[in-house]
Amino acid sequence: MSRSPIFTSLFSRLMFFFLVVMLIPVSVLGFSYLTTGRHAIINNLSGQSETNLERAALRLTQLIEGYRHKAYTISTNEDIIAVLENDEPQSMQQGMTRIYEQLFSIMKGDTYLATASIVSATGRVRLSTHLFPDQYDLRYQGNDTNPFFDLSRAGVDTASTITMRNRYVTQNNVFVFLNILRKVRNNSGEVLGYVAVDIFQDSISALPRGLGFSDLLLIDTENYAAYSLIHMDMHGDFSHFPELGSITFPLEAGSFVSESNIVSLIPIANTQLFLAGVTDTTMYQRNIDGYVAMILLVLAMGTILAGVLAYFFSRSIARPIDSLARSMHKVETGNLETRVAESDIWEISQLERSFNTMVKQITTLMDLTREEEAKLQEAERKALEAQLNPHFLYNTLNTVKAIAKLHHEEDILLITTKLGKLLRNAIDNRDAETSLQESFALVDSYLTIQKIRFGAKLNTVVELEESIATTKTPKLIIQPLVENALIHGLEPKIGNWRLTIKAYRDLSDIVISVADNGIGFPDHLQYDTLFEPESHNHVGLYNIHRRLKLRYGDGAGLVIDSAKDEGTIVTIRIPLEDVSSSTKETE
Fold first, then answer.
1. Comparing 8-65+208-322 with 76-204, is the CATH topology the same?
2. Which of 107, 113, 131, 140 has the highest CB neighbour count under 10 A?
Protein backbone atom coordinates (compact mmCIF):
# COMPACT_ATOMS: atom_id res chain seq x y z
CA MET A 1 0.00 0.00 0.00
CA SER A 2 1.64 3.20 -1.19
CA ARG A 3 1.64 6.30 0.97
CA SER A 4 1.30 9.86 -0.20
CA PRO A 5 4.73 11.49 -0.71
CA ILE A 6 3.64 14.47 1.36
CA PHE A 7 3.62 12.29 4.49
CA THR A 8 7.00 10.60 3.95
CA SER A 9 9.05 13.34 5.61
CA LEU A 10 9.07 14.28 9.27
CA PHE A 11 8.67 17.97 8.44
CA SER A 12 5.47 17.42 6.45
CA ARG A 13 4.00 15.22 9.17
CA LEU A 14 4.85 17.69 11.91
CA MET A 15 3.39 20.47 9.80
CA PHE A 16 0.20 18.50 9.29
CA PHE A 17 -0.22 17.51 12.94
CA PHE A 18 0.53 21.02 14.22
CA LEU A 19 -2.13 22.37 11.88
CA VAL A 20 -4.60 19.76 13.05
CA VAL A 21 -3.91 20.45 16.74
CA MET A 22 -4.21 24.20 16.26
CA LEU A 23 -7.34 24.10 14.15
CA ILE A 24 -9.27 21.42 16.00
CA PRO A 25 -10.34 23.66 18.96
CA VAL A 26 -11.58 26.45 16.70
CA SER A 27 -13.21 23.99 14.33
CA VAL A 28 -14.92 22.14 17.16
CA LEU A 29 -16.24 25.37 18.65
CA GLY A 30 -17.43 26.57 15.25
CA PHE A 31 -19.01 23.27 14.34
CA SER A 32 -20.64 23.01 17.75
CA TYR A 33 -22.17 26.43 17.33
CA LEU A 34 -23.32 25.69 13.79
CA THR A 35 -24.93 22.40 14.81
CA THR A 36 -26.09 22.99 18.37
CA GLY A 37 -26.28 26.80 18.46
CA ARG A 38 -29.10 27.00 15.96
CA HIS A 39 -30.88 24.14 17.68
CA ALA A 40 -30.41 25.77 21.09
CA ILE A 41 -31.83 29.07 19.83
CA ILE A 42 -34.84 27.28 18.34
CA ASN A 43 -35.39 25.39 21.59
CA ASN A 44 -35.10 28.59 23.61
CA LEU A 45 -37.57 30.39 21.35
CA SER A 46 -39.90 27.40 21.49
CA GLY A 47 -39.78 27.43 25.28
CA GLN A 48 -40.50 31.16 25.45
CA SER A 49 -43.29 30.79 22.90
CA GLU A 50 -44.94 27.98 24.85
CA THR A 51 -44.73 29.97 28.10
CA ASN A 52 -46.30 33.07 26.52
CA LEU A 53 -48.92 30.93 24.80
CA GLU A 54 -49.94 29.44 28.14
CA ARG A 55 -50.55 32.97 29.44
CA ALA A 56 -52.67 33.82 26.39
CA ALA A 57 -54.59 30.55 26.64
CA LEU A 58 -55.34 31.24 30.30
CA ARG A 59 -56.74 34.70 29.45
CA LEU A 60 -58.85 33.30 26.60
CA THR A 61 -60.10 30.42 28.75
CA GLN A 62 -61.17 32.86 31.45
CA LEU A 63 -62.94 35.00 28.83
CA ILE A 64 -64.79 32.02 27.31
CA GLU A 65 -65.71 30.59 30.70
CA GLY A 66 -67.16 33.97 31.70
CA TYR A 67 -69.42 34.12 28.66
CA ARG A 68 -70.23 30.42 28.93
CA HIS A 69 -71.52 31.10 32.44
CA LYS A 70 -73.64 34.00 31.11
CA ALA A 71 -75.13 31.67 28.48
CA TYR A 72 -75.92 29.16 31.21
CA THR A 73 -77.52 31.85 33.40
CA ILE A 74 -79.70 33.04 30.53
CA SER A 75 -80.76 29.49 29.61
CA THR A 76 -81.88 28.79 33.17
CA ASN A 77 -83.69 32.09 33.80
CA GLU A 78 -87.32 31.32 34.73
CA ASP A 79 -88.82 34.38 33.02
CA ILE A 80 -87.01 33.60 29.78
CA ILE A 81 -88.05 29.93 30.02
CA ALA A 82 -91.67 31.05 30.55
CA VAL A 83 -91.61 33.30 27.49
CA LEU A 84 -90.12 30.58 25.28
CA GLU A 85 -92.50 27.98 26.64
CA ASN A 86 -95.50 30.20 25.81
CA ASP A 87 -93.93 30.88 22.38
CA GLU A 88 -96.32 33.79 21.71
CA PRO A 89 -94.91 37.17 20.68
CA GLN A 90 -98.03 38.91 22.10
CA SER A 91 -97.43 37.50 25.59
CA MET A 92 -93.81 38.61 25.38
CA GLN A 93 -94.88 42.22 24.93
CA GLN A 94 -96.37 42.35 28.42
CA GLY A 95 -93.13 41.43 30.22
CA MET A 96 -90.73 42.85 27.64
CA THR A 97 -89.24 45.40 29.97
CA ARG A 98 -88.61 42.89 32.74
CA ILE A 99 -87.07 40.34 30.34
CA TYR A 100 -84.70 42.87 28.80
CA GLU A 101 -83.71 44.12 32.26
CA GLN A 102 -82.77 40.59 33.26
CA LEU A 103 -80.97 40.00 29.97
CA PHE A 104 -78.91 43.17 30.28
CA SER A 105 -78.33 42.45 33.97
CA ILE A 106 -76.83 39.09 33.11
CA MET A 107 -74.61 40.61 30.42
CA LYS A 108 -73.83 43.56 32.75
CA GLY A 109 -71.32 45.86 31.07
CA ASP A 110 -70.31 43.36 28.38
CA THR A 111 -72.79 44.56 25.78
CA TYR A 112 -69.93 46.44 24.10
CA LEU A 113 -67.91 43.24 23.87
CA ALA A 114 -70.60 40.63 23.22
CA THR A 115 -74.22 40.19 22.28
CA ALA A 116 -76.75 37.75 23.75
CA SER A 117 -79.59 36.42 21.58
CA ILE A 118 -82.59 34.20 22.44
CA VAL A 119 -84.78 32.37 19.95
CA SER A 120 -87.59 29.89 20.44
CA ALA A 121 -87.48 26.51 18.73
CA THR A 122 -90.11 27.71 16.24
CA GLY A 123 -88.41 31.04 15.67
CA ARG A 124 -91.50 32.99 16.68
CA VAL A 125 -89.93 34.51 19.79
CA ARG A 126 -86.63 36.39 19.21
CA LEU A 127 -84.75 38.55 21.72
CA SER A 128 -81.28 40.15 21.62
CA THR A 129 -79.23 42.76 23.42
CA HIS A 130 -78.47 44.11 19.93
CA LEU A 131 -80.19 43.86 16.59
CA PHE A 132 -81.27 40.22 16.32
CA PRO A 133 -78.93 38.41 13.88
CA ASP A 134 -80.69 37.11 10.79
CA GLN A 135 -78.79 33.85 10.88
CA TYR A 136 -80.47 32.93 14.17
CA ASP A 137 -83.97 33.46 12.74
CA LEU A 138 -85.09 29.83 12.61
CA ARG A 139 -88.13 30.67 10.54
CA TYR A 140 -85.94 30.91 7.46
CA GLN A 141 -83.23 28.32 8.23
CA GLY A 142 -83.05 24.72 7.06
CA ASN A 143 -80.88 21.95 8.50
CA ASP A 144 -77.91 22.99 6.35
CA THR A 145 -78.01 26.60 7.50
CA ASN A 146 -79.46 26.15 10.99
CA PRO A 147 -76.75 27.42 13.36
CA PHE A 148 -78.20 25.28 16.16
CA PHE A 149 -78.41 22.06 14.14
CA ASP A 150 -75.21 20.57 15.59
CA LEU A 151 -76.35 21.62 19.07
CA SER A 152 -79.73 19.92 18.64
CA ARG A 153 -78.05 16.57 18.06
CA ALA A 154 -75.33 16.90 20.70
CA GLY A 155 -75.03 13.99 23.07
CA VAL A 156 -74.81 16.14 26.20
CA ASP A 157 -77.90 18.29 26.13
CA THR A 158 -76.94 20.59 29.01
CA ALA A 159 -73.50 21.49 27.63
CA SER A 160 -72.62 24.63 25.72
CA THR A 161 -71.19 24.46 22.22
CA ILE A 162 -68.38 26.85 21.38
CA THR A 163 -67.81 27.42 17.68
CA MET A 164 -66.37 29.84 15.14
CA ARG A 165 -68.79 28.67 12.48
CA ASN A 166 -71.31 31.51 12.85
CA ARG A 167 -69.05 34.53 12.26
CA TYR A 168 -70.80 37.71 11.10
CA VAL A 169 -70.57 41.52 11.18
CA THR A 170 -73.03 43.51 13.28
CA GLN A 171 -74.89 46.62 12.12
CA ASN A 172 -72.12 48.65 13.77
CA ASN A 173 -69.45 46.89 11.67
CA VAL A 174 -68.25 44.91 14.66
CA PHE A 175 -66.89 41.47 13.81
CA VAL A 176 -68.17 38.46 15.77
CA PHE A 177 -65.51 35.75 15.88
CA LEU A 178 -66.79 33.28 18.49
CA ASN A 179 -70.22 31.86 19.36
CA ILE A 180 -71.39 30.14 22.52
CA LEU A 181 -74.62 28.21 21.87
CA ARG A 182 -76.85 26.53 24.44
CA LYS A 183 -80.29 24.87 24.59
CA VAL A 184 -83.12 26.18 26.75
CA ARG A 185 -85.27 23.45 28.34
CA ASN A 186 -88.29 23.38 30.63
CA ASN A 187 -88.56 21.18 33.69
CA SER A 188 -89.75 18.24 31.61
CA GLY A 189 -86.64 18.40 29.42
CA GLU A 190 -88.41 19.73 26.33
CA VAL A 191 -86.24 21.99 24.13
CA LEU A 192 -87.93 25.39 24.10
CA GLY A 193 -85.28 27.35 22.23
CA TYR A 194 -81.67 28.42 22.13
CA VAL A 195 -79.29 30.99 23.60
CA ALA A 196 -76.42 32.42 21.54
CA VAL A 197 -73.72 34.57 23.12
CA ASP A 198 -71.62 36.10 20.33
CA ILE A 199 -68.22 37.47 21.36
CA PHE A 200 -66.85 40.52 19.51
CA GLN A 201 -63.27 40.70 18.35
CA ASP A 202 -62.78 43.81 20.50
CA SER A 203 -62.97 41.58 23.58
CA ILE A 204 -59.68 39.92 22.67
CA SER A 205 -57.88 42.91 21.11
CA ALA A 206 -55.60 43.21 24.16
CA LEU A 207 -54.93 39.46 24.37
CA PRO A 208 -51.78 39.29 22.15
CA ARG A 209 -50.07 42.33 23.65
CA GLY A 210 -46.68 41.79 25.23
CA LEU A 211 -46.42 38.16 24.13
CA GLY A 212 -43.93 38.66 21.27
CA PHE A 213 -45.87 36.67 18.67
CA SER A 214 -45.90 37.71 15.04
CA ASP A 215 -49.37 36.17 14.89
CA LEU A 216 -51.77 34.53 17.32
CA LEU A 217 -54.29 32.15 15.78
CA LEU A 218 -57.45 30.61 17.19
CA ILE A 219 -58.03 27.23 15.51
CA ASP A 220 -61.41 25.47 15.31
CA THR A 221 -60.52 21.77 14.95
CA GLU A 222 -64.10 20.75 14.08
CA ASN A 223 -64.55 23.21 11.23
CA TYR A 224 -60.85 23.26 10.18
CA ALA A 225 -60.77 27.04 10.33
CA ALA A 226 -58.50 29.60 11.93
CA TYR A 227 -58.85 33.20 13.06
CA SER A 228 -56.01 35.68 13.63
CA LEU A 229 -56.23 37.51 16.93
CA ILE A 230 -53.64 40.06 15.77
CA HIS A 231 -54.59 40.57 12.11
CA MET A 232 -58.36 40.67 12.63
CA ASP A 233 -59.16 40.65 8.91
CA MET A 234 -57.47 37.27 8.44
CA HIS A 235 -59.74 34.28 8.96
CA GLY A 236 -60.87 31.20 7.09
CA ASP A 237 -59.50 27.76 6.30
CA PHE A 238 -55.83 26.79 6.67
CA SER A 239 -54.96 27.86 3.13
CA HIS A 240 -55.00 31.46 4.39
CA PHE A 241 -52.26 30.64 6.91
CA PRO A 242 -49.05 29.23 5.29
CA GLU A 243 -47.48 28.71 8.72
CA LEU A 244 -50.12 26.01 9.35
CA GLY A 245 -49.26 24.17 6.13
CA SER A 246 -47.46 21.31 7.89
CA ILE A 247 -50.02 20.93 10.67
CA THR A 248 -51.40 17.42 11.25
CA PHE A 249 -54.49 16.17 13.01
CA PRO A 250 -55.26 15.38 15.72
CA LEU A 251 -53.55 18.43 17.13
CA GLU A 252 -51.30 18.08 20.16
CA ALA A 253 -49.75 20.63 22.46
CA GLY A 254 -46.16 21.49 21.61
CA SER A 255 -44.04 23.35 19.08
CA PHE A 256 -42.86 22.71 15.54
CA VAL A 257 -40.78 24.64 13.02
CA SER A 258 -42.57 25.79 9.87
CA GLU A 259 -40.33 27.47 7.28
CA SER A 260 -39.10 30.62 9.05
CA ASN A 261 -41.57 30.35 11.91
CA ILE A 262 -41.94 28.50 15.18
CA VAL A 263 -45.55 27.47 15.76
CA SER A 264 -46.61 26.55 19.31
CA LEU A 265 -49.97 24.90 20.01
CA ILE A 266 -52.02 24.65 23.19
CA PRO A 267 -55.64 23.48 23.64
CA ILE A 268 -58.33 25.68 25.16
CA ALA A 269 -59.85 23.75 28.05
CA ASN A 270 -63.32 22.23 27.54
CA THR A 271 -63.50 23.28 23.87
CA GLN A 272 -62.47 21.99 20.46
CA LEU A 273 -60.34 25.12 20.05
CA PHE A 274 -56.56 25.40 19.93
CA LEU A 275 -54.49 28.53 20.34
CA ALA A 276 -51.46 28.79 18.04
CA GLY A 277 -48.63 31.25 18.65
CA VAL A 278 -46.44 32.07 15.62
CA THR A 279 -42.90 33.36 16.25
CA ASP A 280 -41.00 34.77 13.28
CA THR A 281 -37.39 33.51 13.36
CA THR A 282 -36.15 35.66 10.45
CA MET A 283 -34.37 38.14 12.72
CA TYR A 284 -32.76 35.35 14.74
CA GLN A 285 -31.76 33.62 11.51
CA ARG A 286 -29.97 36.78 10.39
CA ASN A 287 -28.08 36.89 13.67
CA ILE A 288 -27.09 33.25 13.25
CA ASP A 289 -25.88 33.92 9.70
CA GLY A 290 -23.79 36.81 11.03
CA TYR A 291 -22.23 34.56 13.65
CA VAL A 292 -21.53 31.92 11.00
CA ALA A 293 -19.75 34.48 8.83
CA MET A 294 -17.69 35.60 11.81
CA ILE A 295 -16.79 31.99 12.66
CA LEU A 296 -15.72 31.31 9.08
CA LEU A 297 -13.56 34.44 9.15
CA VAL A 298 -11.95 33.35 12.42
CA LEU A 299 -11.35 29.90 10.94
CA ALA A 300 -9.67 31.40 7.88
CA MET A 301 -7.44 33.68 9.96
CA GLY A 302 -6.71 30.85 12.37
CA THR A 303 -5.73 28.59 9.49
CA ILE A 304 -3.26 31.15 8.14
CA LEU A 305 -1.77 31.82 11.58
CA ALA A 306 -1.64 28.11 12.39
CA GLY A 307 0.10 27.43 9.08
CA VAL A 308 2.83 30.00 9.79
CA LEU A 309 3.39 28.80 13.36
CA ALA A 310 3.29 25.15 12.31
CA TYR A 311 5.93 25.82 9.64
CA PHE A 312 8.41 27.31 12.13
CA PHE A 313 7.69 24.73 14.84
CA SER A 314 8.06 21.86 12.40
CA ARG A 315 11.26 23.27 10.94
CA SER A 316 12.88 23.72 14.36
CA ILE A 317 12.18 20.07 15.22
CA ALA A 318 12.78 18.47 11.83
CA ARG A 319 16.11 20.17 11.05
CA PRO A 320 18.27 18.41 13.72
CA ILE A 321 16.53 15.09 13.03
CA ASP A 322 17.21 15.49 9.31
CA SER A 323 20.87 16.18 10.11
CA LEU A 324 20.94 13.04 12.26
CA ALA A 325 19.38 10.99 9.45
CA ARG A 326 22.05 12.20 7.01
CA SER A 327 24.77 11.22 9.48
CA MET A 328 23.20 7.76 9.84
CA HIS A 329 23.28 7.36 6.07
CA LYS A 330 27.00 8.14 6.10
CA VAL A 331 27.52 5.46 8.74
CA GLU A 332 25.56 3.01 6.56
CA THR A 333 28.01 3.63 3.73
CA GLY A 334 30.88 2.73 6.06
CA ASN A 335 32.06 6.12 7.29
CA LEU A 336 32.48 5.38 11.01
CA GLU A 337 34.23 8.69 11.60
CA THR A 338 30.89 10.53 11.32
CA ARG A 339 29.76 12.55 14.34
CA VAL A 340 26.81 14.95 14.86
CA ALA A 341 26.73 18.21 16.79
CA GLU A 342 24.22 18.32 19.66
CA SER A 343 21.18 20.59 19.20
CA ASP A 344 19.43 22.85 21.72
CA ILE A 345 16.42 20.53 22.08
CA TRP A 346 17.12 18.28 25.07
CA GLU A 347 15.37 15.16 23.77
CA ILE A 348 17.02 15.40 20.35
CA SER A 349 20.41 16.14 21.92
CA GLN A 350 20.01 12.91 23.91
CA LEU A 351 19.37 11.10 20.63
CA GLU A 352 22.40 12.71 19.01
CA ARG A 353 24.58 11.87 22.00
CA SER A 354 23.37 8.28 21.84
CA PHE A 355 24.14 8.19 18.13
CA ASN A 356 27.71 9.33 18.68
CA THR A 357 28.12 6.73 21.46
CA MET A 358 26.62 4.06 19.22
CA VAL A 359 29.07 4.82 16.40
CA LYS A 360 31.96 4.53 18.84
CA GLN A 361 30.61 1.21 20.13
CA ILE A 362 30.13 -0.06 16.58
CA THR A 363 33.76 0.74 15.84
CA THR A 364 34.84 -1.09 19.00
CA LEU A 365 32.57 -4.07 18.27
CA MET A 366 33.85 -4.36 14.72
CA ASP A 367 37.40 -4.51 16.03
CA LEU A 368 36.36 -7.18 18.54
CA THR A 369 34.51 -9.07 15.79
CA ARG A 370 37.63 -9.18 13.67
CA GLU A 371 39.56 -10.58 16.64
CA GLU A 372 36.82 -13.16 17.34
CA GLU A 373 36.77 -14.22 13.70
CA ALA A 374 40.50 -14.81 13.82
CA LYS A 375 40.14 -16.84 17.03
CA LEU A 376 37.20 -18.78 15.54
CA GLN A 377 39.22 -19.71 12.48
CA GLU A 378 42.03 -20.93 14.73
CA ALA A 379 39.57 -22.98 16.84
CA GLU A 380 38.01 -24.46 13.70
CA ARG A 381 41.44 -25.48 12.44
CA LYS A 382 42.21 -27.21 15.74
CA ALA A 383 38.79 -28.92 15.78
CA LEU A 384 39.39 -30.33 12.30
CA GLU A 385 42.76 -31.60 13.39
CA ALA A 386 41.22 -33.16 16.53
CA GLN A 387 38.53 -34.82 14.43
CA LEU A 388 41.22 -36.86 12.70
CA ASN A 389 41.95 -38.77 15.95
CA PRO A 390 38.55 -40.61 16.25
CA HIS A 391 38.66 -41.44 12.55
CA PHE A 392 42.17 -42.75 12.96
CA LEU A 393 41.01 -44.92 15.89
CA TYR A 394 38.00 -46.16 13.91
CA ASN A 395 40.19 -47.07 10.92
CA THR A 396 42.71 -48.78 13.22
CA LEU A 397 39.85 -50.71 14.86
CA ASN A 398 38.79 -51.95 11.42
CA THR A 399 42.35 -53.22 10.91
CA VAL A 400 42.21 -55.13 14.24
CA LYS A 401 38.82 -56.51 13.21
CA ALA A 402 40.25 -57.79 9.91
CA ILE A 403 43.21 -59.48 11.65
CA ALA A 404 40.88 -61.10 14.26
CA LYS A 405 38.70 -62.44 11.46
CA LEU A 406 41.76 -63.73 9.62
CA HIS A 407 42.95 -65.64 12.72
CA HIS A 408 39.44 -66.80 13.70
CA GLU A 409 39.44 -64.87 16.99
CA GLU A 410 35.65 -64.68 17.37
CA ASP A 411 35.58 -62.80 20.69
CA ILE A 412 38.00 -60.17 19.43
CA LEU A 413 36.02 -59.94 16.16
CA LEU A 414 32.76 -59.46 18.08
CA ILE A 415 34.26 -56.88 20.43
CA THR A 416 35.78 -54.85 17.59
CA THR A 417 32.51 -55.00 15.63
CA LYS A 418 30.41 -53.72 18.56
CA LEU A 419 33.08 -51.22 19.57
CA GLY A 420 33.12 -49.95 15.99
CA LYS A 421 29.40 -49.28 16.18
CA LEU A 422 29.85 -47.40 19.44
CA LEU A 423 32.71 -45.36 18.00
CA ARG A 424 30.84 -44.62 14.76
CA ASN A 425 27.85 -43.40 16.77
CA ALA A 426 30.13 -41.10 18.78
CA ILE A 427 31.72 -39.70 15.59
CA ASP A 428 28.37 -39.12 13.81
CA ASN A 429 27.19 -35.70 15.00
CA ARG A 430 24.91 -34.82 12.10
CA ASP A 431 21.64 -35.37 14.01
CA ALA A 432 20.85 -34.44 17.61
CA GLU A 433 18.12 -37.09 17.81
CA THR A 434 17.85 -40.78 16.99
CA SER A 435 15.13 -43.44 17.10
CA LEU A 436 14.63 -45.65 20.15
CA GLN A 437 15.42 -48.63 17.93
CA GLU A 438 18.87 -47.19 17.14
CA SER A 439 19.44 -46.28 20.80
CA PHE A 440 18.64 -49.86 21.87
CA ALA A 441 20.97 -51.18 19.13
CA LEU A 442 23.73 -49.05 20.65
CA VAL A 443 22.89 -50.47 24.11
CA ASP A 444 23.02 -53.97 22.63
CA SER A 445 26.53 -53.33 21.26
CA TYR A 446 27.67 -52.05 24.66
CA LEU A 447 26.15 -55.04 26.54
CA THR A 448 27.66 -57.52 24.08
CA ILE A 449 31.14 -56.21 24.90
CA GLN A 450 30.40 -56.30 28.66
CA LYS A 451 29.05 -59.88 28.47
CA ILE A 452 32.29 -61.02 26.84
CA ARG A 453 34.11 -59.33 29.70
CA PHE A 454 31.95 -60.57 32.62
CA GLY A 455 30.56 -63.79 31.11
CA ALA A 456 27.51 -65.55 32.63
CA LYS A 457 27.66 -63.34 35.72
CA LEU A 458 25.84 -60.55 33.83
CA ASN A 459 22.16 -61.27 33.03
CA THR A 460 20.32 -58.72 30.90
CA VAL A 461 16.72 -58.19 29.81
CA VAL A 462 16.08 -55.71 26.97
CA GLU A 463 12.48 -54.89 25.94
CA LEU A 464 11.40 -52.27 23.38
CA GLU A 465 7.69 -51.83 22.62
CA GLU A 466 7.30 -52.09 18.86
CA SER A 467 4.79 -49.20 18.57
CA ILE A 468 7.41 -46.67 19.73
CA ALA A 469 10.50 -48.18 18.07
CA THR A 470 10.73 -45.39 15.46
CA THR A 471 10.10 -42.59 17.95
CA LYS A 472 12.85 -39.98 17.98
CA THR A 473 14.58 -39.04 21.24
CA PRO A 474 17.83 -37.22 22.07
CA LYS A 475 20.97 -39.28 21.40
CA LEU A 476 22.87 -40.98 24.21
CA ILE A 477 20.24 -40.85 26.97
CA ILE A 478 19.99 -44.66 27.51
CA GLN A 479 23.56 -46.00 27.03
CA PRO A 480 25.06 -43.70 29.72
CA LEU A 481 22.42 -44.95 32.21
CA VAL A 482 23.27 -48.58 31.38
CA GLU A 483 26.97 -47.81 31.79
CA ASN A 484 26.34 -46.11 35.17
CA ALA A 485 24.27 -49.07 36.36
CA LEU A 486 27.03 -51.50 35.42
CA ILE A 487 29.99 -49.53 36.78
CA HIS A 488 28.49 -47.95 39.93
CA GLY A 489 25.75 -50.41 40.77
CA LEU A 490 26.78 -53.93 39.69
CA GLU A 491 30.60 -54.09 39.65
CA PRO A 492 30.92 -53.52 43.45
CA LYS A 493 28.29 -56.27 44.08
CA ILE A 494 29.26 -59.87 44.86
CA GLY A 495 27.17 -62.53 43.12
CA ASN A 496 25.06 -62.54 39.97
CA TRP A 497 24.10 -59.31 38.30
CA ARG A 498 20.73 -58.50 36.72
CA LEU A 499 20.21 -55.54 34.40
CA THR A 500 16.81 -54.72 32.85
CA ILE A 501 16.29 -52.06 30.15
CA LYS A 502 12.72 -51.32 28.99
CA ALA A 503 10.94 -48.72 26.80
CA TYR A 504 7.14 -48.65 26.61
CA ARG A 505 4.17 -46.35 26.27
CA ASP A 506 2.28 -45.31 29.41
CA LEU A 507 -0.90 -43.39 28.49
CA SER A 508 0.36 -40.10 27.01
CA ASP A 509 4.04 -40.64 27.97
CA ILE A 510 6.97 -42.71 26.80
CA VAL A 511 8.75 -44.40 29.73
CA ILE A 512 12.35 -45.63 29.57
CA SER A 513 13.65 -47.50 32.64
CA VAL A 514 17.06 -48.96 33.54
CA ALA A 515 16.93 -51.24 36.61
CA ASP A 516 19.74 -53.17 38.35
CA ASN A 517 20.08 -55.29 41.48
CA GLY A 518 23.32 -53.60 42.50
CA ILE A 519 24.44 -51.93 45.71
CA GLY A 520 22.15 -48.89 45.26
CA PHE A 521 22.82 -45.34 46.41
CA PRO A 522 23.77 -44.45 50.00
CA ASP A 523 20.81 -43.70 52.29
CA HIS A 524 22.01 -40.18 53.08
CA LEU A 525 22.26 -39.15 49.41
CA GLN A 526 19.79 -36.52 48.18
CA TYR A 527 18.81 -37.47 44.63
CA ASP A 528 18.08 -33.86 43.63
CA THR A 529 21.77 -33.02 44.09
CA LEU A 530 22.66 -35.53 41.36
CA PHE A 531 21.06 -33.21 38.76
CA GLU A 532 23.12 -30.17 39.72
CA PRO A 533 26.13 -29.09 37.64
CA GLU A 534 28.32 -29.15 40.78
CA SER A 535 27.81 -32.96 41.06
CA HIS A 536 31.17 -33.92 39.50
CA ASN A 537 30.75 -37.65 40.26
CA HIS A 538 27.52 -37.88 38.27
CA VAL A 539 28.11 -35.74 35.18
CA GLY A 540 26.23 -38.27 33.00
CA LEU A 541 23.02 -38.00 35.04
CA TYR A 542 23.17 -34.21 35.07
CA ASN A 543 23.84 -34.16 31.31
CA ILE A 544 20.83 -36.38 30.51
CA HIS A 545 18.51 -34.54 32.92
CA ARG A 546 19.51 -31.14 31.54
CA ARG A 547 19.08 -32.17 27.89
CA LEU A 548 15.60 -33.55 28.59
CA LYS A 549 14.54 -30.30 30.26
CA LEU A 550 15.92 -28.20 27.41
CA ARG A 551 14.19 -30.33 24.78
CA TYR A 552 10.81 -31.09 26.39
CA GLY A 553 10.46 -28.60 29.25
CA ASP A 554 9.00 -29.47 32.65
CA GLY A 555 6.89 -32.26 31.16
CA ALA A 556 9.95 -34.53 30.91
CA GLY A 557 12.55 -35.57 33.42
CA LEU A 558 14.64 -38.23 35.09
CA VAL A 559 13.63 -39.99 38.34
CA ILE A 560 15.82 -42.20 40.59
CA ASP A 561 14.41 -44.86 42.92
CA SER A 562 17.13 -46.66 44.89
CA ALA A 563 17.56 -48.73 48.05
CA LYS A 564 20.91 -49.67 49.57
CA ASP A 565 22.04 -53.24 48.73
CA GLU A 566 18.77 -53.81 46.79
CA GLY A 567 19.30 -51.97 43.53
CA THR A 568 18.39 -48.86 41.59
CA ILE A 569 15.73 -47.95 39.01
CA VAL A 570 16.35 -44.89 36.85
CA THR A 571 13.26 -43.80 34.88
CA ILE A 572 12.97 -41.32 32.01
CA ARG A 573 9.48 -40.00 31.21
CA ILE A 574 8.86 -38.03 28.00
CA PRO A 575 5.49 -36.54 26.87
CA LEU A 576 4.35 -38.43 23.78
CA GLU A 577 2.90 -35.28 22.17
CA ASP A 578 6.26 -33.50 22.23
CA VAL A 579 7.95 -36.63 20.92
CA SER A 580 5.46 -36.90 18.03
CA SER A 581 5.97 -33.28 16.98
CA SER A 582 9.71 -33.79 17.15
CA THR A 583 9.43 -36.87 14.92
CA LYS A 584 7.36 -34.97 12.32
CA GLU A 585 9.85 -32.09 12.23
CA THR A 586 12.69 -34.57 11.72
CA GLU A 587 10.88 -36.26 8.85
1. yes
2. 107
For residue 470, which of 572, 547, 583, 571 has the smallest C-alpha distance?
583
Q: What is the DSSP string of 344-377?
A: SSHHHHHHHHHHHHHHHHHHHHHHHHHHHHHHHH
Residue 268 carries which DSSP code? Answer: P
Per DSSP, 198 falls in state E
Longest CA–CA separation in the chain, Å:
177
Taking each helix axis as running N to C, give the angle between helix 282-332 and helix 10-32, from 0 to 180 degrees, rounded to the nearest 10: 170
Q: Are 207 and 213 in contact (CB under 8 A)?
A: no
What was the pLDDT predicted at 373? 81
| Residue 564 CB coordination number (10 Å) | 13
Asked: is 8-65+208-322 a CATH 3.30.450.20 domain? The reply is: yes
**How many Cβ atoms from other residues are within 10 Å of residue 133's Cβ?**
21
Query: In angstroms, what CA-CA distances link 248 with 56, 109, 214, 263?
Result: 22, 40, 21, 12
Cβ-based burial of 226 (10 A; exposed 0-12, middle 13-18, buried ≥19)? buried
**Residue-by-residue DSSP string for 516-565:** E-S----TT--GGGGGSTT-GGGHHHHHHHHHHHHHHGGG-EEEEEEETT
Tell me phi and psi for residue 184, to 5 degrees: -115, 125
Could you tell me which residues are beta bridge partners of residue 543? none
Which one is the CATH code of 431-586: 3.40.50.2000, 3.40.50.720, 3.30.565.10, 3.40.50.620? 3.30.565.10
The structural domains of the chain, with segments of one domain joined by +, span: 8-65+208-322, 76-204, 332-378, 431-586
Count of CA atoms in the C-beta half-sphere (13 A) of 82: 11
Of 20-24, 56-60, 204-208, the least confident: 20-24
CB 460, CB 438: distance < 8 Å: no
Over residues 252-262, the pLDDT tens digits come to 888 888 777 88
| Phi, psi for 169 (deg, rounded to 5) | -115, 130
Fold of 76-204: Beta-Lactamase (3.30.450)
Triad 60, 65, 68: Cα angle to 5°: 125
pLDDT recorded at residue 1: 44
CA distance linking residue 210 with residue 300, whole number of Å: 42
Pairing outcome for strands 497-506 and 458-464: parallel
Neighbours of 248 (CB within 10 A): 7
pLDDT at 419: 64
461-485 exposure pattern, b = at least 16 Cβ within 10 A, e = fewer: eeebeeebeebbbbbbbbbbbbebb
